[in-house]
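FYI - complex with guanine, inputs then prediction.
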Amino acid sequence: MTAKIIDGKAIAARVRQEIADEVAALKAKHGLVPGLATVLVGEDPASQFYVRSKGRACEKAGIYSTKPLLPENASQEEVEGLVRELNEDPSIDGILVQLPLPRHLDDEAILGVISLHKDVDGFHPINIGRLVMKGRDPLFVPCTPAGMMVLMDEAGAEIEGAEAVVVGRSNIVGIPVAGLLRNRNATVTICHSRTRDLPGTVRRADIVVAAIGRPQMIRGDWIKPGATVIDVGINRVDDPTAKRGYRLVGDVAFDEAVEVAGAITPVPGGVGPMTIAMLLNNTLTAFHYRLQRLGLE
Ligand code: GUN
């Protein structure tokens, strides 16, 4: 049996079109559009690429965006001051501080300054706290984990009562996706570098989330037949036959796992495209909060 390939690119394109349609309708009705600010500190090339991609996606969806830039040596006060200005800016609904920040900055304090209603990344400590606490709802769900849940639903995975194994415990992916799966009544195990029997634990899983950042670490014979496999990894591996000299692979050995799994996300074209789609969706949600404050909804 070969697995169903979960086409994140197509699903993200559909979600983005739905958002663009709603933005256009709200603009026609109210004469207002959503606004997103992506704050970049320094010149990290990967972060520059992500911020540019987010700006382009906003433009295509009819969302206003601005990309405030601070130098690598910006002080804690300067970054927090910029975030406070954006909190007060009525044309900005969503504020995203691109991570990682330069090492001299306290990212937890900076994320804590973002207005709760503009926290489109969902990384404010109160939003994360609400996500992981029982019976509480965050104002925003972090984009990559939210996108992963959409992919599981699109694949028809049964989450209620499932054994879910999350490999990786990052604040951006592992911890929030484990909370989301638990909120949908999965039985969740979080694995990490000290997990004693990683292959044996993954073999129990009806749903596997791979978020470790190690190329092809999860092998096909770790996968329970029929399991749903969601691979967040994006790793460069040398490939002299490729034009750029490298290719991108996930944290799962795709060619092996595809023979065993029930459904699996490819890399690239799986989880990656969903992150930006969910960011646009969160920005639209933040815009609805503005319309509610203005008494228009
Ligand atoms: N760096 C890697 N992923 C993310 C993300 O989802 N949001 C932000 N702000 N920075 C990131």
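The longest strand covers residues 35-41. The chain has a mean pLDDT of 97.
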